[in-house]
Design goal:
Elements lengths: L7 H8 L3 H8 L8 H14 L17 E7 L8 H16 L3 E7 L1 H5 L2 H7 L5 E5 L18 E4 L9 E5 L1 H14 L5 E5 L6 H16 L9 E3 L4 H14 L5 E4 L2 H13 L9 E6 L2 H5 L5 E4 L2 H33 L18 E4 L2 E3 L8
Parallel strand pairs: 1-2, 1-3, 3-4, 4-5, 5-11, 6-7, 6-8, 8-9, 9-10
Antiparallel strand pairs: 10-12
């Protein structure tokens, strides 16, 4: 488990002074602070083993105008179309606002050395966008409750209070269920993603099954097979579903890659996708449009996910810097000499919690029964 990070608020509480006073001591702008108060703050910093962040140091003008785009240590992650589209959106939005991006991979040594904190604290980057986050990335807990600007792209976590921008996966599940039910399908199989590791995948599957139940269609656990979001796993899962129920009329896969893997499996079984078994995906990648028949899917605009994530993060960075400027300005004008709490210093930047809309794209892979 990651060590709980000490915050500037902990230092203020331990030393019995305001956040502003702590910030002024850290920034060596404490000429109006008494020696006794200064020593009390420094002692608290030492006792708590506190490492100040860029914002806590009061360095709002020390911007690098650079954002780190962090991805998991996956093979050929930057070549993957999912990551590629999101990164393209991030790049375009960053360029519009005069920011650069730096690509990083969260390899084991990178995480062990906690470089994701170092690049923020030494002002190498102004914020981090993490794509491909899962429950395995326990180091994200280091950002819980801190002022370090990190935003999770297209996922979320119940156990941590982190900024996030994501597609509305629950709505995607409901759209898929309604579309199949509207076409008369009642014997439906589902190829899920790793529901225990990725919250948005669980949102999709849970909403899909719940909406089917509302429509009077019971999807048993026997007819849900977990895949790993790649074509080959979609093929294996489809084979498993048809072995469990040879009379399935439709399959909904949690992404387009697995849906196209189901195409392969069906053809090898002598079945026609879209004719003998309807297939539906989720994403609307370019390959979905090029498939034969064209894949009916729920469109998620990953370019827009990247762009909106980037815009929100830059807005967050600017809001935090503005807060720091206001806090230090108020402290200087008020002549802080004791532990009085300044309201501006404690102003909280609201958590980013954005859901982006999704929509049905009908092609030829779903037929009425």
């Amino acid at each position: 488990m990651a060590k709980t990070r000490v915050s500037i608020r902990d230092v203020a509480r331990e030393s019995g002074v305001s956040l502003t006073t702590v910030s002024l001591v850290l920034n060596k702008n404490d000429g109006r602070i008494s020696d006794a108060t200064r020593e009390r703050v420094l002692d608290a910093i030492q006792r708590l083993d506190y490492t100040p962040s860029r914002l806590a140091r009061g360095l709002p003008n020390s911007q690098s105008k650079t954002l780190a785009v962090l991805v998991p240590a996956l093979q050929h992650a930057f070549a993957d179309v999912y990551f590629g589209e999101i990164i393209s959106g991030i790049y375009e939005a960053a360029a519009e606002r005069g920011f650069r991006i730096m690509l990083e991979v969260a390899r084991r040594d990178y995480v062990k050395r906690r470089e994701y904190l170092t690049v923020l604290d030494d002002c190498s980057v102004d914020g981090i966008l993490f794509i491909g986050a899962s429950e395995e990335h326990t180091w994200l807990g280091d950002f819980d409750g801190t002022d370090r600007p990190l935003l999770v792209v297209n996922n979320h976590f119940a156990q941590w209070d982190l900024h996030r921008v994501e597609c509305d996966y629950a709505q995607a599940g409901r759209i898929a269920a309604d579309h199949l039910a509207d076409h008369g399908h009642t014997r439906i199989g589902h190829i899920s993603g790793p529901v225990d590791k990725v919250a948005t995948t669980a949102d999709l599957t849970n909403a899909f099954m719940a909406r089917l139940a509302e429509r009077g269609i019971r999807l048993t656990d026997q007819l849900v097979v977990e895949g790993k979001l790649h074509v080959e796993f979609g093929k294996i899962a489809c084979e498993e579903l048809l072995a469990r129920d040879p009379d399935l009329t439709a399959i909904f896969a949690s992404n387009d890659k697995m849906a196209l893997g189901a195409y392969q499996a069906l053809r090898e079984m002598g079945k026609r996708p879209g004719e003998d078994v309807s297939v539906m995906g989720c994403d609307d990648l370019a390959t979905a449009r090029l498939a034969a028949p064209g894949l009916t899917t729920v469109k998620m605009n990953f370019l827009n996910v990247g762009a909106e994530s980037c815009r929100h993060l830059i807005d967050l960075i600017r809001a935090q810097n503005g807060r720091t400027k206001r806090s230090n300005g108020a402290a200087a004008s008020n002549g802080v000499t004791n532990g009085t709490t300044n309201g501006a210093a404690e102003h909280e930047v609201h958590r980013i919690d954005a859901l982006l809309p999704v929509e049905l794209v009908e092609r030829g892979s779903v037929r009425a029964v």
